[in-house]
Amino acid sequence: MGMSKEWKKEEVIDYLRESIAELTEESKDSAPVDIHEPIYDMGVDSMKTIQLIVLIEQHFDINFDDEELIMESFSTIDRITDCIVNKLRS
């Protein structure tokens, strides 16, 4: 149980794309492609951002501190990926 999986950045990005597609009720085929596009433009509002953070914390078995939960860090798939990867390494 205590073994933590080594996540690759591509796996994190794929997970985020799928999760955003589910939250915005898009089909997986039309999952967001541009990891630098603001997730707000993909249909992720503040409530969906909170849902996404909860999904991320559960999926990757991590917890973000309140001071880490700033909009800038969660504005694009690329930035969210960096936050997750940094958290997994700490």
UniProtKB/TrEMBL annotation:
State the UniProt keywords alphabetically.
Phosphopantetheine, Phosphoprotein
Q: Name one Pfam family in it.
A: PP-binding
What positions does the domain Carrier occupy? 10-88
User: Which InterPro entries does the UniProt record give?
Assistant: ACP-like_sf, PP-bd_ACP, Ppantetheine_attach_site
Q: Which SUPFAM superfamilies match?
A: ACP-like
The UniProt record lists the keyword Oxidoreductase:
no
Coiled-coil region(s): none
According to UniProt, the name of this protein is: Acyl carrier protein
